[in-house]
TrEMBL record:
TM region(s), chain numbering: 47-70, 82-101, 107-128, 140-159, 171-189, 222-245, 257-277, 286-305, 311-334, 346-365, 377-397
Recorded superkingdom: Bacteria
GO cellular component terms listed in the entry, alphabetical order: plasma membrane
Source species taxonomy: Bacteria, Bacillati, Actinomycetota, Actinomycetes, Kitasatosporales
Organism encoding this protein: Streptomyces qinglanensis
InterPro entries xref list: MFS (IPR011701), MFS_dom (IPR020846), MFS_trans_sf (IPR036259), MFS_Transporters (IPR050171), Sugar_transporter_CS (IPR005829)
Protein name (Swiss-Prot/TrEMBL): MFS transporter
Entry keyword set: Cell membrane, Membrane, Transmembrane, Transmembrane helix, Transport
Principal subcellular localization: membrane
């Protein structure tokens, strides 16, 4: 079945591309909003560091589970059938956070917030691209990327400020969040999204729920991206889950504003670096991001040993820069070569793989902290992340048999006649960022997919469309 490009946006609809970013910001704010309040809940409910990281891991579990189905459902049935239930779950999670009186309630609230975020990581950012015309795909990708990371930055800062400045901190924060989500709900209801293609035959319904992956020809690229992106996002996960505890226990401050501001600068750095680095080559993105993540872990260990607030903030900034660059590079590497019909799934696979490690390592660090000390746990965590990201960087240097798209608007586009997972190349080899991969010929009788300009529709969650400029000559 053929896939068609979204209709060209004109007039007022161009403004909807920008307005569609608001629901992404609102829901992603919920993703990290609880972080500055963990110390408050810890004092009130009396749970350990291991329980704290388990609450964070529950969020990751909800997010990962949603990524296995939300993208496919969104591509098949439309964005709104995924986005509206996601917003309702976000509202329910906010209500539970506001009334939390036990760890199980926090676990359920964090799980529901993870499901809501997973829905918007797939369908929400795809909606931004859907509402862009063919000349706006680069802008749409940057808007989607910055709305995701920007929301993750604003949430904890808002929570930190409100929890210190207004009465009933854990209640007021989430009452404000409910207001933000209701405004987002109104935007989603009115979005003039293009219609979806007809649903697949009933016999294929079982494929709606599956572990996201990339086409066989692109799995090497997926693994190469995961090698640096997963450790980088694990580093930011540690700051999110145990950063407030570090501030309270080692640095002798219980300021929720400082805790929220630390997380804010982390994600603000991740947002800013994506704008600054949008013209760098993918290889540079990945290697520089790996170096920054390694430096972040070294500074984290220094911060714990010297009980230095500036060092902890510097570690958070470096972690944010590392995540921003590795995320940008990995997603661009996929968008340069994965067919439009599988791009959303490939991006979901990258996100899921990254968050899987981001959930596992902080939980292990929390358990080790309870068994030994936070100092020891931080050192072991930092060494583990540094070893993993340096291993990934070594794979990038060696290049292997995978391609990597160049940045700066010089991405190689998929040929119009491509099969799901098999780019059509007629006896040529594509060179991308110095890494060369022999691409498979398109088998006879394959079905044509969308035109290259429609690539951004496939749910490219970050700056994949940013680099979709001109074709790279061979």
């Amino acid at each position: 079945m053929s896939a068609s490009a979204p209709p060209t946006a004109t007039g007022p609809r161009r403004g909807w591309m920008w307005l569609a970013a608001w629901p992404v910001v609102a829901v992603l704010a919920l993703s990290n909003e609880p972080a500055p309040l963990y110390v408050l809940w810890q004092d009130r409910l009396g749970f350990s560091a291991a329980a704290l990281t388990a609450v964070y891991a529950t969020y990751i579990a909800g997010l990962l589970g949603t990524l296995t189905v939300a993208g496919t459902l969104s591509d098949r049935y439309g964005r709104k059938p995924v986005l509206l239930p996601g917003l309702l779950l976000g509202l329910l999670a906010s209500a539970l956070f506001a009334s939390a009186h036990s760890v199980p309630v926090l676990l359920v609230a964090r799980l529901l917030s993870g499901i809501a975020v997973g829905a918007f990581l797939s369908a929400g950012m795809a909606a931004v691209s859907d509402l862009a015309d063919r000349t706006q795909k680069r802008t749409a990708g940057l808007i989607a990327s910055s709305s995701m990371v920007g929301g993750a930055a604003v949430g904890p800062l808002l929570a930190g400020l409100l929890s210190e400045l207004v009465p009933g901190p854990s209640v007021t924060v989430f009452l404000v969040q409910i207001g933000l989500l209701l405004a987002a709900f109104a935007v989603v209801v009115r979005m003039p999204l293009p219609p979806r293609a007809a649903p697949a035959a009933p016999g294929t319904a079982r494929r709606l729920v599956r572990v996201p992956s990339a086409p066989r020809a692109n799995r090497g690229q997926l693994l190469l991206g995961l090698g640096v992106f997963a450790p980088a996002i694990a580093a930011t996960g540690f700051v999110l889950s145990l950063g407030p505890t570090l501030l309270a226990d080692l640095l002798h401050t219980r300021s929720r504003i400082l805790s929220g501001a630390t997380i804010f600068v982390l994600f603000a750095a991740a947002t800013g670096i994506q704008f600054a680095a949008r013209r760098l080559r993918v290889r540079t993105d990945l290697l520089t991001g790996a170096a920054l993540t390694t430096a972040s872990m070294a500074v984290l260990v220094l911060a714990v040993r010297t009980t230095s607030v500036p060092a902890l903030v510097a570690s958070a900034v470096l972690a944010g820069l590392g995540q921003g660059l590795t995320q940008l590079g990995a997603l661009t590497m996929l968008s340069s070569d994965v067919p439009a019909a599988r791009l959303a799934e490939a991006n979901a696979a990258l996100t899921a793989g990254g968050y899987l490690l981001a959930g596992a390592l902080p939980v292990a660090a929390g358990a080790l902290s309870d068994a030994t000390s936070l100092d020891t746990a931080s050192a072991v965590f930092g060494a583990t992340v540094a070893a993993l990201v340096l291993t990934g960087a070594t794979a990038v240097l060696r290049g292997g048999a995978t391609g990597a798209g160049s940045s700066g608007g010089r991405t190689v586009r998929a040929a119009p006649g491509t099969q799901d997972g098999a780019p059509a190349v007629r006896g040529t080899r594509d060179r991308q960022d110095g890494l060369v991969r022999a691409r498979r010929r398109r088998p006879a009788g394959t079905v044509h997919t969308a035109a290259p300009a429609a690539r951004g529709e496939a749910g490219a969650a970050t700056a994949d469309a940013v680099r979709a400029g001109s074709e790279q000559p061979e």
